[in-house]
Design a protein that fits this description.
Order of helices and strands: HHHHHHEHHEHHHHEEEHEH
Strand order of the largest sheet: 1-2
Shape: globular
CATH class: Mainly Alpha
CATH topology: Glycosyltransferase
Strand content: under 5%
Low-confidence stretches: none
Mean pLDDT: 96
Largest sheet: 2 strands, antiparallel
């Protein structure tokens, strides 16, 4: 599909999503609809809201902003508490949607958004930490750091510090440094999915605390987090992040499929039977490369690589039927444990055993995030 036709089809698809969706029914979350699950405050909706605010910034079309404001407004009470948010779960995933609160507060002046940002910041203040100072990924994963947790919480923490704090980004930089020092593989430059600082989890190496494999979407979330943090933090504070980000993009690049520019579900083992080019993580790395080049943190050649990956996804995994979009080759979910779910052991076989689905929000939202960076070119 030609570029103009692809963009027009995606724009039409996005229009359908916001026309058909409400805070209680999200047309992009196919799996939740199938399961009959109730709507809640969650990270995927946060990704969608972030993408829509980017589209508003790019196009100036007010309907994107109005949809986000209406959607978030339905979850945030006047006192700043958030409907369905469960503080006792200490779940970093539930912080991500809060990153849109800052733009909403700036645009509308509604105090409820400022109070909601304070509410989420206080939730982070009570988040348990490892001995090295990193936030636990969730209460049910004690002493564990997961790559995706950096995306779920650190951009929000940085935005809070930027808008309402004192400009002290040291805790953010420290937590990223722990990930770099503990979770990066010196041989490949890739990052392991999880790290248990206590070395007690059944899935971890008892000497290093690390999980066994390189899961694409985890690396994708970490890549997006670094790109976003490089934009949020002031120049004087961002240098360590830029170094981590640049090294990761350099090191992941050799694992791109030469034909499509996409990346494999288990990044470094394309030869394993059943491994496949996965769309959500590929979209995230493309987003990170495009954004990094736009911010001039990365060489311009990375933008071309990001375009190649986006085009590869469109060519191999995306189809349109009227206003309908079909996005294929999405890993439904993957994780590590907990203790009562030993199937999730971090092996290559485990990551390849998870369902590969169509149109799941965890693939659609990253694709639209990537699309916003394509539109900025």
């Amino acid at each position: 599909m030609a570029e103009n036709a692809t963009y027009a089809a995606l724009d039409q698809y996005i229009e359908r999503l916001i026309t058909e969706s409400t805070p209680d029914y999200t047309a992009w979350n196919v799996e939740k609809i199938r399961q009959g699950a109730s709507t809640n405050w969650n990270y995927i909706d946060g990704c969608m809201m972030t993408a829509l605010l980017s589209l508003y910034e790019i196009t100036g079309e007010r309907r994107y902003f109005d949809f986000v404001e209406s959607f978030i407004d339905a979850f945030v009470y006047e006192d700043g508490t958030i409907r369905t948010f469960k503080a006792e779960g200490h779940t970093l995933d539930d912080i991500n949607e809060g990153r849109v609160l800052f733009d909403l507060y700036k645009a509308t002046g509604k105090e409820k958004y400022r109070k909601a940002a304070d509410f989420l910041r206080k939730a982070l203040d009570s988040q348990p930490r490892t001995v090295e100072g990193s936030w636990w990924h969730k209460q049910i994963y004690p002493n564990q750091v997961w790559l995706d947790g950096i995306y779920m919480a650190q951009p929000f923490a940085a935005l809070y510090e930027k808008h309402f704090g004192t400009g002290d980004y040291s805790d953010i930089l420290k937590q990223v440094a722990v990930v770099r020092d503990r979770m990066r593989d010196a041989r490949t430059g890739l990052y392991y999915h999880g790290y248990d600082a206590s070395r007690e989890a059944f899935w971890c190496d008892k000497a290093t605390g690390l999980s066994q494999s390189f899961w694409l979407r985890a690396i994708g979330w970490f890549s997006v987090a670094l790109a976003d943090l490089c934009e949020i933090l002031p120049e004087k504070d961002a240098a360590p992040l830029k170094d981590v980000f640049s090294a990761l993009m350099r090191d992941v690049l050799p694992f791109a499929d030469p034909e499509t520019g996409m990346y494999y579900q288990v990044v470094d083992h394309p030869e394993v039977p059943g491994n496949y080019l996965e769309t959500s993580g590929s979209s995230m790395i493309a987003y990170a490369m495009l954004k990094g080049a736009r911010l001039k943190v990365l060489d311009a050649s990375y933008a071309e690589q990001g375009c190649k990956t986006f085009d590869g996804i469109v060519r191999t995994s995306l189809s349109f039927t009227g206003k309908e979009l079909n996005l294929n080759n999405i890993c439904l979910v993957a994780g590590l444990g907990p203790e009562n779910n030993r199937r999730r052991d971090g092996t290559i076989a485990y990551y390849l055993s998870e369902p590969v689905v169509q149109n799941d929000a965890k693939g659609v939202a990253p694709l639209l995030m990537c699309y916003t960076e394509m539109k900025r070119r």
